[in-house]
Fold each of these.
Amino acid sequence: MSTAVTRITAAAIAAGLALTLAACGGDQTPSGGTTSDGGGEPTGAATEGGGSLTGTVAADGSSTVAPLTSAAATAFRDVEPGVNVTVATSGTGGGFKVFCAGETDISDASRPIKDEEAQACADAGVEFTEIVIANDGLSVVVNPANDWAQCLTVEQLNTMWAPEAEGTITSWNQIDPSFPDVPLDLYGAGTDSGTFDYFTGEINGEEGATRADYTPSEDDNVTVQGVAGSEGGVGYFGLSYYEENSDVLKLVDIDGGEGCVTPSRETVQDGTYTPLGRPLFIYVNNAKYSDNPAVQAFIDFYLENEATIAEEALVIDLTDEQATTARTELDSLKG
Amino acid sequence: MSSSIARTAGRVTGRPSGGASSAPAGARILRSSTRRGESAALAALRLAALLSVAITVGIVVSLLIPALDFFREVPLGEFLTGTRWTPRFADASYGVLPLVTATAWATLIALAVAVPFGIGAAIYLSEYAPTRVRTTLKPILELLAGVPTVVFGYFALLWVTPLLRDTLGITLKPFNLLSAGLVMGAMIIPTVASISEDAMSAVPGELRQGSAALGANRMQTSLRVVVPAAFSGIVAAIVLGISRAVGETMIVTIAGGQQAQMVRSPGQGGATMTAFIANAALGDSRVGSLEYNTLYAVGLLLFALTLVVNLVAIQLVRRFRQEY
C-alpha cells in the first residue's frame, strides 16, 4: 500500500478504489476524475478530463493475471465510466496470439514473452512494452494429514513430476525413504496454463515436460478438492489459491538449493522463494498506449493502484524498485 | 395459414363419405388442393422435417472432416487399442481406451441404479398406484429430470463422495466414477420411469383382466403379462437412458475426475470421453492441430457408440413389438 500512496496523483482515484473495494457497486460519483493536479507528473495524462473518456480497452491472456486486470477494470469504471474494459482469459500463450494480431491492447502474462511470440508481434508490426505488474508465488500443497512432507527440495519435486516418473513413482516413500508408503495422488495445472509452463520449466527443466498420469485441470479448485480429499495428495498452483484454502490444505516449504523457504509475500517479493516465485506481467501495445487515451488512462491507473489491486487479487504487490521501473518504461512511451 | 388448415379440416370432416379417421384420404385431399396457404404450410412442414435431417448430416460432416485429418496421423488401430491417452502433453499418446473404460464404468453404474429403480417406479405407477397418487407422483418424478446437471455434479462431488467414504468407509479417490455414476443413475431414473410407465399404461386393460380371470395375482400380472407386453417400450426407455449416460458431461467432468487412466475399479477417477472433450475445448488448442483434431476423433467415436446403441435398440424394439 505504501508504494501506491506515494504515487497516487488524484485523491479521487483512491477514494473511488476504496469504495469499490469496500463493498457495494452502488452509485459512486465520478466527479473527481483523473485530471492531473500537478503531483508527480507534470506532463502525464493531463490531456484527458476526469470521467470524460470513452472507448474500449481489450485485455486477454493469463488466468493468473486476469483477476488483477479485472480488479483494475472494476475500480477504473468508477473513475472513467465511459471506458469499457474487457478482460478475457485465453491463457498466456493464447493472449499473446491475439495481442500480436493487434486485437488486444493489453496482454496478461504469467511468464515473459517467448522469442517466437515476440517474433510474431514483430512480423505483425506490433511493438510492445513489458510491465511487471505484481509478484506471484507457486505453492506446492499437500493434504493436512500429511505430516512428513514439511519441506521438499527441487530434486524431490523433480522425482515426483518428471516424465520418467510416469507409472513408476507412485508412492511417497519413493520420493524419500523416510516418507511412508502412501500412494501419490497428483494434481496440477492444465497444459494450457502459464502455471503449467512455469512449474514444468522450473521443476523438470523443460516447459511442458511432465509425467502425464496426474489430474490436470485449468480449474485450480479441482486441485483443491483433490488434494483436500486424498491423504497422499499433492498439487501446485498460485500462492493466492492456497491462502483462500488454507483451512483444507497444507503448504510445503521449498528448498531451491539454499535451504527451506516458506512461500510468503516477503519471500516471493524479495526473490528468496526460488525457483517458484515469479513476476507477473502485462504487455502493453505501444501504439495503442500512445494513441488511445482510454488505454493510456487505464494502464496508468492500473500501475498507480497496483498495490491495492494486488491485495484484492491475492497476489503480491511490487517492490518500490519494480514500480519505478514500470513507471519509467510507460513514461518513455508518452513521448 | 393455420386458419386455412382448420377450414380444410372442417371441410374434410364435414363430408359424408370422407370420415375424419381416414388419415390417407385427408392427406390426399390436402395434397390435391391448390390453395396458396396450404402449399406454403406444406412447404414449411416439409422444411421442418428436413431441417433435423440436415442438422444431423451437418454434424456428421463437421465431425468427419477433422477426424479424418486425425486418423491420417494416428492409425485407427492405435487409437482404438492404445491404453495411454495424453494428447495434450509433450509426450503424446493417442490410445482412447482410458476414456472408453471411464465412460463404460460410469454408464454401467448409472444403469445399475436407473434400470431397477426406473422400471420399479414405472410398475408401481402403472399397476399399483391409485390414479390420484400417479397424477401427483409422476410430475414430481419428472422434476428430477429438470435439475441442471451441474447441480448433480457438485452433489456427487461434495455430498455423495464424502458420504460413501466417511460414513460407509468405502475407499475412494476424491474424484471417482462411483459417485458420479450413482448420481447420474439418479438423474436418469425419471427418463426410464416415465417412458416405461407410458408403455405399460398403453397395455390394454383386457390383458390384465384376462390374466386376473386365469387366477393370477397383481404381481404375476405385472411381471408376466404387462412387462412383457410393454417390453419394446421399456427397451426404448433403457436405450434412451444409456444414450444419456454415455453423453452426460457435466456430472462426470465435475465429480468423475479428469485424469485419463485405464479405470479398473469404480473407486478410481477417470476422464470419460465427454469429460475430455469438455476440458480440451476449454484450452486454446490451435485450430487444425493434431490436439484440436483429437476432439473430433473422440466426438466421432462417441457419436458412433450412441448410433450403435440406437441401432441395436431399434432391432430389439422391432423384434418384441406387440400390436394390440
Amino acid sequence: MDYQVVNQGKLDIVMLSGDIDLYYTPDARRIVLQCLNKKRGVLVDLSAVTYIDSSGIACLVEGYQTAKSLQLVFGLIGVSENAMNVLRLTRLDQVFPIHASLAAALQHGG
Amino acid sequence: MNADTTLLTKLRLPARAAHLQELRTAVRAAARQSGCDQSLTEQLTLAVNEAAMNIIQHAYGEAATGEIILEIHNNGTELVFRLLDFAAPVDHNALRSRDLDEVRPGGLGLHLIRTVMDTVEYLPPPTGVGNLLQLCKRIS
C-alpha cells in the first residue's frame, strides 16, 4: 500500500493505493486518524485500491465514527470496483458518504 | 474428496499478516485456472483471506508464530479450500457474524466468508492437532 495526503481547504484528501490488508491497515488507520485529530475533515480516495479486506473496512468505519464524534466531514471518493464490492457485501455502501470524484464531493460540501 | 478431485495448490506459510498477499495470489491463480470470472475470483480471494486472518488474529493470537497450510481442490463442481492451523482448538460454536445494522469497526470477517462460500465447516484435523476449516464454492 502507498498513500499520499493532499490538503484541500479544510479537508485532507487521503489517497490510498494498492492492497489494504491486515499488514497495511495499521498505516492506513494512523494516517486517517492523524488527519482527523488535527480537526480536518477527510476524504479517502479509494480509486487506486486493488484490494481491501475487513481490517481495511474497519479502519474506514473507525474514521467515519471518529469524524462524526468530532463533527468533521468524512467520505469516500472514486471507490474502485473491488473496494465497492466489499462495501456492498458488508452493506457499508449505505453508510459511508460515497462520491464519484473529488469534484463531486466538494460540490456536496465534502 | 472423491476420485475426480484435483489438488490445485498446496501452500504452507507463516501465520503472519505479511504473508497474506502470497495466499491471495495462490487463491486467484486457482480460481482463474478453474474458470472463475473476475468477480467470483475476487470474492473467493476475499473469503479465504478473511479465514486466514481469523487464524492469525484469533487462533494464534497477537504473537502469531505458527503456520497455516492452505490446500485448494477442484472436485469438478466445487472449489474446496482447506485451511489447517496448529493452534489450540477454537470453540467453533462461539464464532458468530455480527449484526450488519450495528456500524462499528471489526467483526465482519465471518459474515464475508459465509456470504461468499456455499458451505463453511470445521473438520477434524488430520493429526488431531489444531483446526481444519473447509470452505466450498460451487463453480458449475
